[in-house]
Amino acid sequence: MTNQSKHATDATIIYASLDQLYLHELNPRQEVAQEAIEALAESIKTCGLLQNLGGLQDDSGKIGIVAGGRRLRALAYLSESDPAQETVKSIPVLLAKDSAQAEVWANAENTARADLDPADEIRAYGRMAKSQASADDIAKAFGVTVAHVKGRLKLAHLPDAALDALKAKSINLTVAQKLTTADDEKLILEALQLIAEGRITHTNQIDGVLHPKAVKATDRRAVFVGAEAYEAAGGKIARDLFSDDVFFEDRDVLEAVFAERLGAAAETVVQEEGWVWIITHEEAYLSWNFMEEQKFERVYPVEGVLSDDLADRYDELAELDEGDVLNEAGQAELEKLQSILDGDFTEDQKALAGCVVHVAQDGQLQITGGLIRPEDKKHAIEAGILVKSHYGSAEKAPKNPYSQKLRDDLEAIKLAALQNAMVDQPDLLLDLLTFHLSGMTGFWDVLGLTTSQPRNLPSCTDGFALDKRLSKPDAVPADHWDVDLKKAFATLKKKGKKHRDAELTRLLAKLLTGRDADFSGFLEQKSGAAIRKVWTPTADNLFKRVSGSMMEGIYCALLDLSPTDERAKAFAKMKKGEKAETLEDLFSDPSKQKLHGVTEAQKARIDAWVPDYFG
Description:
Layout: H1 3-6, E1 12-16, E2 21-23, H2 34-47, E3 53-57, E4 63-67, H3 69-81, E5 91-95, H4 99-112, H5 118-130, H6 135-142, H7 146-155, H8 160-167, H9 173-179, H10 185-196, H11 203-210, E6 215-216, H12 220-225, H13 227-232, E7 237-239, E8 246-248, H14 251-273, E9 277-281, H15 290-294, E10 297-298, H16 308-322, H17 328-342, H18 347-350, E11 354-359, E12 365-372, H19 377-382, H20 404-422, H21 426-438, H22 468-471, H23 485-494, H24 496-511, H25 517-527, H26 548-559, H27 566-572, H28 576-588, H29 590-595, H30 600-608
Parallel strand pairs: 2-4, 3-5, 9-11
Antiparallel strand pairs: 1-5, 3-4, 6-8, 7-8, 10-12, 11-12
C-alpha cells in the first residue's frame, strides 16, 4: 500500500498524474459522445479544472475514477492534443476510504448533480461578453455549444427584475424570451407585475402589454404595405429574437400608409381595367349584405367559349394537372385556356359599372367589379347590360305573369333538365362531389347531400319525361330501422365496380340542386342540358296556367305574325281554353302544324321554345 493510501482512512484529496488514473467499472458514464469530451476539454483548457475527480485506489496503487469520468476523458484528450498543458500534470482526486463510499459517490454525482440555473447562466455569459469574450470563447469555457451561448446572451440584456423572476421561477424561459421583444423597461416591468398578480395567464397576452400600439407582421395591413414602405414612413419595427414574430410598433403610421397605398392601388385598377368609378373598402371582407346596403346591382364577365379542339385540349391538360404531372409549359397553356373560359367584362359593361377594392385577410388586394350604382341602373337596363328582374322592382312590382305554383313547376323542370343531362356525365359529377366535399363552395351546397332529394318533378307531369334512372326508386330496405350494415355493404360490393359507378352517377345526379344561377348555367353548358329534352309545353302543364294575352304573344312570335294579322286576330278571339289547345297542337301535332303553314325555320323555333321565365 502507498503512503497516499495509508492516510486515506477518510476521504482525502491527492494529486495524481494522468497515467495513474483509469475509468473504474463503478463509474456510470461508461459511454460519452466525443463531441462532449472535446467541448469539455476546451473548457478545461480555458478555465482550468474547476472540480476535482473522485476515485478509489486499488492494490496496485492506481486510482479508478468513479466520479468525473467525462472530465477524465477530457483531460486525456487534452494531454494528446496539447501535451504542454499544466492542468494534466497534477490532477486533484478525492479518494474514497472504501468501495462502499466510492459507490455512493458514483451514484450521487450522476443523480444529484444539477445544471447551472438559467438565470445564473445568463448573467455569467453576460459578464464574460462585457469583458469582450466572444460567444465561441464562452462556449469553450462552459463546455456548451455556441448556439446555446448566443441564445442566452440574447436574454442578458433583460433588466435585473426579469432575471430575478426567472431565478425565482416566477416566469419561465419562454416568458423571458418574450420580454426581449420590448426595448422599454417600463413595459417589461409592467408585464412582470401583471404576471405576479395573475392577470396574465398565457404568453400570448404578453404581446399586448409589451407592444400596446403594435400590429404583427402577419396582419393584413402589414402584409399589404410591407416593412420597407412602413419604415420609410417613420414606422418602427421590433423583432422577436426567439421566433418569427415581427411587430410593427406604430399602428397610426401603418394605418396611414395602408390607406395611402390602398388609394394608389385603386387608381391603378381604374387605369388598367377601365371602370367608370371605384371605391375603397377598409375592412378585410365585404359583408354578406354589402350589395344590398349599397343598393348595387351586378353584372358578370361574359364567359368565353372554346372550340371543340381547344375544349378537348383543356380537358387533357386539366387531367394532367389533377394528377400533378403537368409541366410548366402545360400549366401556362391551361391557365390561358382557363382565362378564355372565365371571360371578361365588356367595354359596354365597364362604361356603366364600377368596382370595390379591399385588402383581404391574407394581405392581397381583392377587386369586386361589375357593380351598377342605383343612379346608373336605368341606363344599364336600357343599354342591355343589366337584365330587369323577373319579379319587377321593389317600388312598382307588376303582377307576375307566372303564378307561384307554375314558377315552382318551371324550376323543377329546369332542374330536371340539368339532372337529365348530368346523369350521363359521371366524371363531371365526381368533380362536383369533390368540389362540394372540399369546402371550397363556401356556404353553397352544389349537391344536396342529404336523404331528401331536391324537387325535380312538376305538379303537372303532362308532357314531362324524365330519364328512367332518375325516376328509379332507391333500394331502401323494408325494415330500414334494422339493417345489417355489413351484410348490405357486402351485397353492394358483390355487384361490382361497374354497378357501383352507375349507381353513384345516378344518385349524384338526383342530388344535384343547381343553386346559384350562374353556376347552374355553367353546368348546363358543360353537360348539354336542355329543358325541351325533358319537357314539352302542353295546355295543362303551361298554357292554361298563363294569361290569354301571353298566349297571343307566344302564338304570334312562333308564327312570325303581327297582332294585326288575320290569323292573330282570329286567335285572339278564341276562348282561353281554345287558345291553350291550339298552342298544344302547334307544339305536338304535325298535321296541325301543316295546317298553320309552319315553315322549317318556325318548326325549329317551336322545337326549341321555352317560356321567357327561363331567360
